[in-house]
Amino acid sequence: MKDFFKILAITMTVFFIMAGACAYSVYKSHKNFPEYAKKEFLYEKYKDYLNSIDQELASSTSLLDFAAKIEKLEHPEEVIYLCLEKESDFDNHSNDNDEIEIIKKFESGSKSTYTSNGTGYGRINGQNIVIIKHDVSSQKGLETCVIYFKHESESK
Questions:
Q1: What is the pTM of this model?
Q2: Within this chain, do residues 138 and 81 fall inside the same structural domain, yes or no?
Q3: Cα–Cα distance measured from residue 50 to residue 41, given in angstroms and rounded to the nearest whole number
Q4: What is the mean pLDDT of each run of 10 residues along the chain (156 residues)?
Q5: Alpha-carbon distance 92 to 6, whole Å?
Q6: Alpha-carbon torsion angle 118, 120, 124, 127, nearest 10
Q7: Residue 144 covered by a domain
Q8: What is the CA radius of gyration of the chain?
Q9: How many C-beta atoms surround the C-beta of residue 117 within 10 A?
Q10: Is 155 within a domain?
Q11: Which burial class, exposed, middle or buried, applies to 9 when counting CB atoms under 10 A from its CB (0-12, 13-18, 19+)?
Q12: Whether residues 68 and 136 fall in one domain
């Protein structure tokens, strides 16, 4: 019985250390959120582009019609990824077709991103990016339009 409590104590200690490290990592990412990735900055910088997405959304008759119109849009050169995230279906637990990928200009590989309040930042295969998760939920069946933009560091 002593061994059981020893193992339990060790397991719980490891669990709390890992949970604390994870919580600290999230806190640090949120605290160090860069100005260039904040919603106010990105929505101002890409205002015209996001307005054109909203115009296509308003004139679309269906999810697929909207996707086709978005594909034909003139996208800024720095857009490297764009997808439409579908509404979550709580009855369907498979991850099949949860998003409609429209643009992908990078090879699959290492990806690290952090988003908060609809925008974020990260790296894909060593390339710095900023992220906008634009609300498109007014179109039935959709949730967000996720856009990754190349971001050049200020230090370059």
A1: 0.77
A2: yes
A3: 13
A4: 80 82 62 86 96 95 92 95 85 68 89 89 92 92 94 64
A5: 42
A6: 130
A7: yes
A8: 20
A9: 11
A10: no
A11: exposed
A12: yes
